[in-house]
């Protein structure tokens, strides 16, 4: 009989003690995250990109081409082992909107099979040239992958020097959840990266990763979110 009263009272007392002993840290401002995405690898330059990300304690999201995965499995293992996110960017880098549903499915499936041999199971994809229609969306969804767009596109692929790439990212109207689209094969992109990461952090953003989400994301019109990475970036 006594326990029916004593135990609830004890719980309330202990919880109150906890409240006073560990007050919420009201001083911490909410953190804003943006993600760096790197398309078209694995490639000759991706190792340099990974060195820079490692030196800056940041993770990237690599959208890889299946044919390149088959050619450079060692780099995919490194992406995997260093905590980067690996997404599907089709097998042959084709414009998926020119294909029928079975061919779209095959482009995703061949890439996922190449990745599965390296114990990587992607849950994200990005269509080449950012060109997609409902069949593309459905085919990705059928294979357990959410589509990822970008709201900051510095057109890094079109430059052979770092300065304009870094400047274009500076000119992006970054917000919490922004996704920056880069290409791992471009030497100028890797040269721009250290300064770009400094700029992004100086603007008050942390570097995060992209994940599927059960909440609709209006910024990207998709079921994705930008979230902290497990070992987030010193933020
Ligand atoms: Zn691409």
UniProtKB/TrEMBL annotation:
Residue ranges of domain NodB homology in the record: 32-208
CDD domains given in the database record: CE4_NodB_like_6s_7s
Secretion signal, residue range per the UniProt entry: 1-26
Entry keywords, A to Z: Hydrolase, Metal-binding, Signal
Metal-binding in keyword set: yes
InterPro entries linked: Glyco_hydro/deAcase_b/a-brl, NODB_dom, Polysacc_deacetylase_ArnD
Key word Hydrolase present: yes
Pfam families for the chain: Polysacc_deac_1
Identification of the protein by name: NodB homology domain-containing protein
Organism: Cryptosporangium minutisporangium
């Amino acid at each position: 009989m006594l326990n029916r009263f004593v135990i609830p009272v004890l719980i309330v007392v202990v919880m109150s003690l906890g409240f006073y002993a560990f007050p919420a840290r009201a001083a911490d401002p909410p953190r804003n995250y943006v993600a760096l995405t790197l398309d078209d690898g694995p490639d000759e330059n991706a190792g340099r990109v990974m060195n820079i990300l490692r030196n800056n304690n940041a993770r990237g999201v690599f959208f890889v081409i299946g044919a390149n995965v088959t050619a450079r499995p060692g780099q995919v293992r490194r992406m995997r082992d260093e905590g980067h996110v690996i997404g599907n960017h089709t097998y042959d880098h084709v414009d998926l909107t020119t294909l029928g549903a079975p061919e779209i499915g095959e482009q995703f499936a061949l890439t996922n099979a190449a990745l599965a041999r390296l114990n990587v199971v992607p849950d994200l994809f990005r269509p080449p040239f950012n060109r997609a229609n409902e069949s593309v969306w459905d085919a990705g969804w059928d294979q357990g992958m959410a589509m990822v767009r970008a709201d900051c596109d510095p057109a890094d692929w079109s430059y052979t020097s770092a300065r304009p790439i870094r400047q274009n990212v500076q000119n992006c109207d970054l917000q919490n959840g922004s996704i920056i689209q880069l290409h791992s094969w471009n030497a100028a992109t890797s040269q721009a990266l250290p300064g770009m990461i400094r700029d992004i952090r100086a603007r008050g953003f942390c570097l995060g990763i992209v994940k599927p989400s059960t909440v609709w994301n209006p910024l990207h019109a998709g079921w994705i979110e930008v979230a902290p990475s497990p070992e987030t970036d010193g933020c």
